[in-house]
Amino acid sequence: MKFLGHKVRELREGNRWTQMEMAQKLWDTGKFKGKTRQRIHQIESGQHASARTISALCEVFSVPPETFFDNRF
Questions:
Q1: Within-domain flag for 73
Q2: Considering the entire predicted model, what is its pTM?
């Protein structure tokens, strides 16, 4: 399965959050390290996102983990 960083960006922009606002929200979950705009950019670019980061994303956006993955074979 491929991580879909663009889905993170779509959700963030849909909530009208800056990358720094989203970083703070993720940080507040206690599951996210790297509270920087650069880290959010890496996630949105589809670079590796840890299980803890994905868990924090699910919490912040109230979506299931499969939201962030391409399940096509």
A1: no
A2: 0.88
Question: Cα–Cα distance between 20 and 13 in angstroms, integer?
Answer: 12
**Residues 9-29 pLDDT 10s:** 999 999 999 999 999 999 999
> Is residue 50 in a domain?
yes
Q: Residue 34: is its pLDDT beyond 80?
A: no
Residue 41, H or E segment: helix 37-44
CATH number, domain with residue 23: 1.10.260
Distance CA 9, CA 6 (A): 5
**Residue ranges making up the domain that contains 8:** 2-62
Residue 47's alpha-carbon distances to 16, 18, 56, in angstroms, are 22, 19, 16
